Protein backbone atom coordinates (compact mmCIF):
# COMPACT_ATOMS: atom_id res chain seq x y z
CA UNK A 1 0.00 0.00 0.00
CA UNK A 2 1.38 3.38 -1.02
CA UNK A 3 2.20 5.89 1.70
CA UNK A 4 0.48 9.24 2.08
CA UNK A 5 2.33 11.92 0.13
CA UNK A 6 3.47 14.92 2.16
CA UNK A 7 4.19 18.06 0.14
CA UNK A 8 6.64 20.56 1.53
CA UNK A 9 5.23 24.02 0.79
CA UNK A 10 6.99 25.90 -1.98
CA UNK A 11 6.12 29.35 -0.65
CA UNK A 12 6.91 32.69 -2.21
CA UNK A 13 6.29 36.30 -1.29
CA UNK A 14 5.68 39.47 -3.26
CA UNK A 15 8.61 41.83 -2.85
CA UNK A 16 6.33 44.83 -2.38
CA UNK A 17 4.59 43.20 0.60
CA UNK A 18 7.76 44.09 2.50
CA UNK A 19 8.36 47.63 3.65
CA UNK A 20 10.06 49.53 0.86
CA UNK A 21 13.84 49.41 1.04
CA UNK A 22 16.46 51.60 -0.59
CA UNK A 23 18.48 48.66 -1.87
CA UNK A 24 17.77 45.27 -3.39
CA UNK A 25 20.40 43.81 -1.07
CA UNK A 26 18.39 44.76 2.00
CA UNK A 27 15.14 43.45 0.52
CA UNK A 28 16.84 40.14 -0.31
CA UNK A 29 18.26 39.89 3.22
CA UNK A 30 14.85 40.48 4.79
CA UNK A 31 13.20 37.83 2.62
CA UNK A 32 15.99 35.40 3.48
CA UNK A 33 15.39 36.04 7.18
CA UNK A 34 11.89 34.58 6.79
CA UNK A 35 13.31 31.38 5.30
CA UNK A 36 11.54 31.91 1.99
CA UNK A 37 13.32 31.06 -1.26
CA UNK A 38 11.05 32.61 -3.91
CA UNK A 39 9.85 36.07 -4.82
CA UNK A 40 7.29 37.52 -7.18
CA UNK A 41 9.11 40.65 -8.25
CA UNK A 42 7.31 43.81 -9.36
CA UNK A 43 10.20 46.18 -10.02
CA UNK A 44 8.22 49.48 -10.07
CA UNK A 45 6.42 48.60 -6.82
CA UNK A 46 9.55 47.62 -4.87
CA UNK A 47 11.87 50.22 -6.39
CA UNK A 48 9.78 53.02 -7.97
CA UNK A 49 12.83 55.22 -8.53
CA UNK A 50 14.30 52.66 -10.96
CA UNK A 51 13.12 53.35 -14.55
CA UNK A 52 11.13 50.30 -15.66
CA UNK A 53 9.29 51.20 -18.85
CA UNK A 54 9.62 49.56 -22.28
CA UNK A 55 12.75 51.47 -23.22
CA UNK A 56 14.46 50.84 -19.85
CA UNK A 57 14.34 47.04 -19.61
CA UNK A 58 17.65 45.34 -20.44
CA UNK A 59 19.53 42.09 -19.70
CA UNK A 60 22.03 43.82 -17.43
CA UNK A 61 19.20 44.94 -15.16
CA UNK A 62 17.96 41.37 -14.95
CA UNK A 63 21.44 40.02 -14.23
CA UNK A 64 21.86 42.63 -11.47
CA UNK A 65 18.72 41.64 -9.58
CA UNK A 66 19.19 37.93 -10.17
CA UNK A 67 22.71 38.13 -8.75
CA UNK A 68 21.60 40.00 -5.61
CA UNK A 69 18.71 37.66 -4.85
CA UNK A 70 20.69 34.51 -5.66
CA UNK A 71 23.31 35.52 -3.06
CA UNK A 72 20.54 34.91 -0.52
CA UNK A 73 19.42 31.70 -2.29
CA UNK A 74 16.26 33.43 -3.51
CA UNK A 75 14.81 32.90 -6.97
CA UNK A 76 12.69 35.40 -8.89
CA UNK A 77 9.83 33.00 -9.53
CA UNK A 78 7.51 35.43 -11.29
CA UNK A 79 8.35 38.75 -12.90
CA UNK A 80 5.34 41.08 -12.63
CA UNK A 81 4.25 43.47 -15.34
CA UNK A 82 0.63 44.26 -14.53
CA UNK A 83 -0.87 46.29 -17.36
CA UNK A 84 -4.30 47.32 -18.59
CA UNK A 85 -4.18 45.25 -21.76
CA UNK A 86 -7.57 46.58 -22.93
CA UNK A 87 -6.94 50.24 -22.13
CA UNK A 88 -9.58 52.35 -23.93
CA UNK A 89 -6.90 54.47 -25.62
CA UNK A 90 -5.55 52.29 -28.43
CA UNK A 91 -2.17 54.03 -28.53
CA UNK A 92 -1.76 53.60 -24.77
CA UNK A 93 -2.86 49.96 -25.06
CA UNK A 94 -0.16 49.25 -27.64
CA UNK A 95 2.46 50.94 -25.46
CA UNK A 96 1.45 48.77 -22.51
CA UNK A 97 1.58 45.58 -24.58
CA UNK A 98 5.03 46.62 -25.83
CA UNK A 99 6.06 47.16 -22.21
CA UNK A 100 4.90 43.66 -21.29
CA UNK A 101 6.83 42.22 -24.23
CA UNK A 102 9.97 44.02 -23.08
CA UNK A 103 9.62 42.23 -19.73
CA UNK A 104 9.25 38.92 -21.56
CA UNK A 105 12.43 39.69 -23.49
CA UNK A 106 14.56 40.14 -20.35
CA UNK A 107 12.78 37.76 -17.94
CA UNK A 108 15.38 35.02 -18.33
CA UNK A 109 18.08 37.48 -17.26
CA UNK A 110 16.09 37.99 -14.04
CA UNK A 111 15.95 34.21 -13.65
CA UNK A 112 12.17 34.11 -14.17
CA UNK A 113 10.33 31.70 -16.44
CA UNK A 114 7.11 33.70 -16.59
CA UNK A 115 5.80 37.26 -16.68
CA UNK A 116 2.46 37.91 -14.98
CA UNK A 117 -0.42 40.27 -15.60
CA UNK A 118 -4.15 40.62 -15.05
CA UNK A 119 -6.50 41.25 -17.97
CA UNK A 120 -7.27 44.92 -17.43
CA UNK A 121 -10.42 46.99 -17.52
CA UNK A 122 -12.51 48.75 -20.16
CA UNK A 123 -11.81 52.02 -18.31
CA UNK A 124 -8.42 53.62 -17.72
CA UNK A 125 -8.37 52.69 -14.03
CA UNK A 126 -8.82 49.07 -12.93
CA UNK A 127 -12.06 48.70 -10.96
CA UNK A 128 -15.21 46.62 -10.77
CA UNK A 129 -17.63 47.27 -13.62
CA UNK A 130 -20.00 44.92 -15.39
CA UNK A 131 -18.85 46.49 -18.66
CA UNK A 132 -15.88 44.16 -18.28
CA UNK A 133 -18.21 41.17 -18.57
CA UNK A 134 -19.26 41.84 -22.18
CA UNK A 135 -18.15 39.78 -25.15
CA UNK A 136 -16.62 42.93 -26.62
CA UNK A 137 -14.31 43.27 -23.62
CA UNK A 138 -13.43 39.58 -23.79
CA UNK A 139 -12.52 39.83 -27.49
CA UNK A 140 -10.18 42.71 -26.70
CA UNK A 141 -8.47 40.53 -24.11
CA UNK A 142 -8.10 37.72 -26.65
CA UNK A 143 -6.53 40.11 -29.15
CA UNK A 144 -4.02 41.48 -26.62
CA UNK A 145 -3.11 38.11 -25.10
CA UNK A 146 -2.53 36.65 -28.57
CA UNK A 147 0.02 39.38 -29.29
CA UNK A 148 1.81 38.79 -26.01
CA UNK A 149 1.78 35.00 -26.28
CA UNK A 150 2.96 35.06 -29.90
CA UNK A 151 5.98 37.06 -28.74
CA UNK A 152 6.50 34.74 -25.75
CA UNK A 153 6.55 31.73 -28.08
CA UNK A 154 9.51 33.21 -29.97
CA UNK A 155 11.41 33.59 -26.69
CA UNK A 156 10.40 30.33 -25.01
CA UNK A 157 8.73 32.31 -22.23
CA UNK A 158 5.39 32.04 -20.43
CA UNK A 159 2.64 34.65 -20.18
CA UNK A 160 0.96 34.07 -16.80
CA UNK A 161 -2.61 35.41 -16.72
CA UNK A 162 -4.49 36.16 -13.51
CA UNK A 163 -8.27 36.49 -13.51
CA UNK A 164 -10.70 38.19 -11.17
CA UNK A 165 -13.99 40.01 -10.77
CA UNK A 166 -12.44 43.38 -11.66
CA UNK A 167 -11.47 42.06 -15.09
CA UNK A 168 -12.98 40.50 -18.24
CA UNK A 169 -11.67 37.09 -17.11
CA UNK A 170 -14.04 37.12 -14.15
CA UNK A 171 -14.62 33.39 -13.57
CA UNK A 172 -12.88 30.03 -13.98
CA UNK A 173 -15.13 29.31 -16.98
CA UNK A 174 -14.01 32.54 -18.66
CA UNK A 175 -10.37 31.62 -18.02
CA UNK A 176 -10.97 28.25 -19.72
CA UNK A 177 -12.53 30.08 -22.65
CA UNK A 178 -9.47 32.30 -22.95
CA UNK A 179 -7.13 29.29 -22.85
CA UNK A 180 -9.16 27.63 -25.58
CA UNK A 181 -8.98 30.72 -27.77
CA UNK A 182 -5.23 31.20 -27.32
CA UNK A 183 -4.32 27.52 -27.72
CA UNK A 184 -0.69 27.85 -26.66
CA UNK A 185 1.42 26.18 -23.96
CA UNK A 186 3.08 29.59 -23.53
CA UNK A 187 -0.04 30.89 -21.79
CA UNK A 188 -0.46 29.66 -18.23
CA UNK A 189 -2.60 30.72 -15.26
CA UNK A 190 -1.95 32.29 -11.89
CA UNK A 191 -4.91 31.22 -9.79
CA UNK A 192 -6.15 33.57 -7.07
CA UNK A 193 -9.31 31.99 -5.67
CA UNK A 194 -10.21 35.08 -3.64
CA UNK A 195 -10.32 37.16 -6.82
CA UNK A 196 -13.30 35.10 -8.01
CA UNK A 197 -15.33 35.42 -4.79
CA UNK A 198 -18.20 37.82 -4.10
CA UNK A 199 -19.77 38.41 -0.68
CA UNK A 200 -22.63 36.10 -1.65
CA UNK A 201 -20.35 33.30 -2.92
CA UNK A 202 -17.58 33.10 -0.30
CA UNK A 203 -19.27 30.04 1.20
CA UNK A 204 -18.77 28.29 -2.16
CA UNK A 205 -14.99 28.62 -2.24
CA UNK A 206 -14.40 24.85 -2.27
CA UNK A 207 -16.57 24.63 -5.38
CA UNK A 208 -14.61 27.48 -6.98
CA UNK A 209 -11.32 25.71 -6.21
CA UNK A 210 -12.61 22.43 -7.65
CA UNK A 211 -13.98 24.17 -10.73
CA UNK A 212 -10.67 25.92 -11.42
CA UNK A 213 -8.65 22.71 -11.08
CA UNK A 214 -11.16 20.78 -13.20
CA UNK A 215 -11.17 23.39 -15.96
CA UNK A 216 -7.49 24.34 -16.16
CA UNK A 217 -5.54 22.51 -13.49
CA UNK A 218 -2.84 21.45 -15.92
CA UNK A 219 -2.26 25.09 -16.91
CA UNK A 220 -1.87 26.51 -13.39
CA UNK A 221 1.67 27.87 -13.10
CA UNK A 222 1.33 29.42 -9.62
CA UNK A 223 -1.26 30.20 -6.97
CA UNK A 224 -1.76 33.40 -5.02
CA UNK A 225 -2.57 32.72 -1.38
CA UNK A 226 -4.82 35.56 -0.23
CA UNK A 227 -7.02 35.54 2.86
CA UNK A 228 -10.17 37.64 3.20
CA UNK A 229 -13.07 38.80 5.33
CA UNK A 230 -16.44 40.14 4.21
CA UNK A 231 -16.83 43.70 5.42
CA UNK A 232 -19.38 46.33 4.34
CA UNK A 233 -20.55 43.89 1.65
CA UNK A 234 -17.03 43.71 0.17
CA UNK A 235 -14.46 40.91 0.06
CA UNK A 236 -11.52 42.54 1.84
CA UNK A 237 -7.98 41.07 1.84
CA UNK A 238 -6.41 40.39 5.23
CA UNK A 239 -3.26 38.67 6.49
CA UNK A 240 -3.12 34.92 5.91
CA UNK A 241 -4.59 33.00 8.82
CA UNK A 242 -6.85 35.82 10.02
CA UNK A 243 -9.73 35.44 7.58
CA UNK A 244 -12.17 33.01 6.00
CA UNK A 245 -10.12 31.43 3.20
CA UNK A 246 -10.07 27.62 3.38
CA UNK A 247 -6.33 27.20 2.87
CA UNK A 248 -6.40 23.66 4.25
CA UNK A 249 -8.65 22.53 1.39
CA UNK A 250 -6.62 24.48 -1.17
CA UNK A 251 -3.27 23.09 0.01
CA UNK A 252 -4.64 19.55 -0.03
CA UNK A 253 -5.77 20.11 -3.61
CA UNK A 254 -2.31 21.39 -4.58
CA UNK A 255 -0.53 18.45 -2.93
CA UNK A 256 -2.77 16.01 -4.79
CA UNK A 257 -2.62 17.64 -8.22
CA UNK A 258 0.28 20.13 -8.43
CA UNK A 259 3.02 19.08 -5.98
CA UNK A 260 5.57 21.81 -5.15
CA UNK A 261 3.63 24.44 -7.09
CA UNK A 262 4.75 27.99 -6.35
CA UNK A 263 2.41 29.37 -3.68
CA UNK A 264 2.76 33.14 -3.56
CA UNK A 265 1.51 34.89 -0.43
CA UNK A 266 -0.36 38.08 -1.28
CA UNK A 267 -1.59 41.03 0.79
CA UNK A 268 0.17 39.66 3.87
CA UNK A 269 2.50 42.47 4.87
CA UNK A 270 5.98 42.21 6.35
CA UNK A 271 5.08 42.08 10.08
CA UNK A 272 2.56 39.26 9.49
CA UNK A 273 4.66 37.08 7.17
CA UNK A 274 6.29 34.89 9.88
CA UNK A 275 2.88 34.11 11.41
CA UNK A 276 1.44 33.39 7.96
CA UNK A 277 4.25 30.94 7.18
CA UNK A 278 3.77 29.18 10.51
CA UNK A 279 0.01 28.98 9.97
CA UNK A 280 0.32 27.50 6.48
CA UNK A 281 2.93 24.98 7.56
CA UNK A 282 0.76 23.92 10.52
CA UNK A 283 -2.36 23.24 8.44
CA UNK A 284 -0.28 21.48 5.78
CA UNK A 285 0.69 18.68 8.20
| Helix fraction by DSSP (H/I, runs of at least 4) | 40-55%
**How many domains is the backbone divided into?**
1
Order of SSEs: EHEHHEHEHEHEHEEEHEH
Number of helices: 9
Category from helices, strands and their pairing: alpha/beta
Summed over residues and divided by their number, the pLDDT gives a mean of: 96
Number of strand elements: 10
Binned strand content: 15-25%
- The low-confidence runs, each spanning 5 or more residues with pLDDT under 50, are none
Shape: globular
Q: Please name the fourth-level CATH homologous superfamily.
A: Divalent-metal-dependent TIM barrel enzymes
User: Measured on Cα atoms, how large is the radius of gyration?
Assistant: 18 Å
Detailed description of the structure:
Residues 30-280 form the Xylose isomerase-like TIM barrel domain. GO terms for molecular function: isomerase activity. Pfam families: AP_endonuc_2. Keywords: Isomerase. This is Sugar phosphate isomerase/epimerase. By secondary structure, this protein is α/β, with parallel strands linked by helices. It has one domain (10-283): TIM Barrel, CATH 3.20.20. 40% of the residues lie in helices and 18% in strands. The protein has helices spanning 24-34, 43-46, 59-71, 90-110, 135-155, 172-182, 205-216, 247-257, 273-283; strands spanning 10-14, 38-41, 75-80, 114-118, 158-162, 187-191, 220-225, 227-231, 234-238, 262-265. The strands form 2 sheets. It has an 8-stranded parallel beta barrel, surrounded by 5 helices. Helix 5 (135-155) links the parallel strand 4 and strand 5. Helix 3 (59-71) crosses helix 4 (90-110). The relative contact order is 0.13. The mean pLDDT is 96.
